Structure formats: structure tokens, C-alpha cells
Amino acid sequence: FTQGWGSRRRWVTPAGRPDFDHLLRTYGDVVVPVANCGVQEYNSNPKEHMPLRDYITYWKEYIEGGYSSPRGCLYLKDWHLCRDFPVEDVFTLPVYFSSDWLNEFWDALDVDDYRFVYAGPAGSWSPFHADIFRSFSWSVNVCGRKKWLLFPPGQEEALRDRHGNLPYDVTSPALCDTHLHPRSQLAGPPLEITQEAGEMVFVPSGWHHQVHNLDDTISINHNWVNGFNLANMWRFLQQELCAVQEEVSEWRDSMPDWHHHCQVIMRSCSGINFEEFYHFLKVIAEKRLLVLREAAAEDGAGLGFEQAAFDAGRITEVLASLVAHPSFQRVDTSAFSLRPKELLQQLREAVDAAVAP
After folding, report:
1. Taking every annotated instance into account, which residue ranges of this chain make up the domain JmjC (predicted)?
2. What domains can be seen in the chain, in order of their start residue?
């Protein structure tokens, strides 16, 4: 079903390789983020920004050099092409993944999104990780092939080293060192997938994974959250806050506004804090409430009444937990356009009305 996508028709040569000439003509001056796969920075890779034309020049030289370069293996990652070129005919969102609260929220703010283009030579790769906010993700190869190594939730715990750190590379021989990784033998083998051109991989919430490009590859990737994994996102955010609080616990009594600083640190590390999470819930909830109140069969986004009722129910459960959380109760909500408890009451009334006979 991806054959008709604009990206698959225009970004790929008849031989199935990246069409560098088209990409240069269309996006050559666009500045893109590029990671160095050969350098470890914590459990990721350092990034730089360069015009796409410079990256493609590097990529061609890398191929001509037998897939080697003094600059290392560079990988274009997390390019927000759809945000920067919203009218481009790049792909068609599969209906199965159309309930996408993460991008619905960021589109409403017109600030950011979680739709990305990745492009890199054979040998480029993404280190071991789980997706942001414990979101779902999908990935389609516009061209090329990828090897995926996926671990179901919980299996990653056996891969931690004796200091509690997750591995950077699950293919590293270091994991066989039981002194460094005392529980690694308890980990089951990963689910290994070879993804061909045009194929889509769905990554469930909380599955850690590592991905290697087997060919020169371009892919389109989305992260998204909806009613089915919202509780996972909320659980993850609570864990992140606990980790921050533990890290700075020695200053709890001496630092003014310690709880506020924990939220600031959490946002810096995780990309969101409790206050922003509330605004995320509020934006999604208000749209669902509108559908429920109007008893509309559909709105412009194709959101039906039953879907809105389901979404509202899931938001109600998580919002109730957020409102009751001691750290959120310390957040100053006086300037909020809609107070959390008021929104919670509106949701409860709407959900009750939706399920009433």
C-alpha cells in the first residue's frame, strides 16, 4: 500500500536506490540533523547540522570509498520534513495509525511534530533504545533494507550492566561478559526482522530495539500516542520524575522550589513535564468533548462518536491519576484556561452521558 506514496515514486531511482539528484533539486538547501554512528555519546550519537546537499556529497563519497570515510559513518536522523514542508506529497497515513494524539497536539500548537525522515548508507544504525514517551512507532522503508532487533517490555532489564545502565549496542561482545552484565544470560534472543523496501514495521509501546541499515536506506518514521498506550506514557513520566527526584534528593531540604526544579530537569531530560502533560491531555480532551456534546457522527478528522467516547474515557482515567499526584498538586494551575479538576468533571459527565442507555 506504500507504492503510491510520493516519496516512493520520486525519491527512488528505477534501480531502487536513493535518487540523490531529485533530493538535491528539491531539498538541497534544507539544513538537516546528522548523527555520527561511530561516536558514542551516552547511549546515543552526537549530532551536527548541515545542508542536505553537503550530506549527500558525503554520502556519495562514502559509497565511492567502499563505505568508509575518515569522517566516520554519518546518518541523517530525525529530519522534520513534514513539519517544514507540510504540503509535500510524501506519504499517506495508514488508517490503522490515524488516532495520533502526539502529532494532533503538536499540530495544534504549530510548533513541532513526531514525524521524521531517516536516510543513511549501508552500515548506519540506531543504538538500543525505546521510543520517546513510550509511544508507538511505525517505520516504512522508502528504499533499502533494515535489520531490526526488538525486545519485549521487561527483557531489557536483563541486559543492564552491573551499574544499572542499558547497553548502547546489543550486538557488542561485552554483553557476554558476565562480570559487566551479570544477568545477560537471562535475556531471551531478540525478535529479528529484515524490513524490505516498501514494508512497514510497527513497534509496540515500550519495546526496546536497535536498527541497522543493510543497504543505502531512506525511511519515514512516526511516533504516536493514543488511548491504547496513554497509560504507558503516564507511567513512564512518573518513573522519569522519580529518577530525577532520586538523583537530586540530597538537595531536597536545602534547595528552594525543589519540586519545581525537578519538573524543569524532567522536561530537559524527557521532553515533557507534568504541566505540559496536562496541556497535552487538555487539547485532546477538548476535541473529544466537542464531538460528544454535539453527538456528531464524524468531525473533519473522521473522529466518530464511539471513538471520542473511548478516548475521553482513557483520558479521564489518566487525568484523575495526574490530578491526585502530589507533584502535580504543587503545580500552579491558577493561570490555566481550564482548571484540571474542572476538565476532569466535564470528562466524567460526558463519558457517563455517552454510555447511558
Report:
1. 82-241
2. 6-224 (2.60.120.650), 230-355 (no CATH)
- C-alpha–C-alpha distance, residues 138 and 130, integer Å: 13
Q: Residue type for 214, please?
A: L
Reported in sequence order, the residue ranges of 99-216 that DSSP labels E, i.e. its strands, are 115-120, 125-129, 136-143, 146-151, 191-195, 200-203, 208-213
pTM (2 d.p.): 0.93
For cell 547540522, name the residue.
Answer: 49
Sign of the torsion formed by the C-alpha atoms of 124, 127, 128 and 133:
negative
Which cell is 156 given? 531489557
140 — alpha (psi -120 to 50), left (phi > 0) or beta? beta
DSSP E strand boundaries for the chain? 31-36, 47-51, 74-79, 115-120, 125-129, 136-143, 146-151, 191-195, 200-203, 208-213, 217-224
Residue 123, phi-psi category: left (phi > 0), alpha (psi -120 to 50), beta (remainder): left
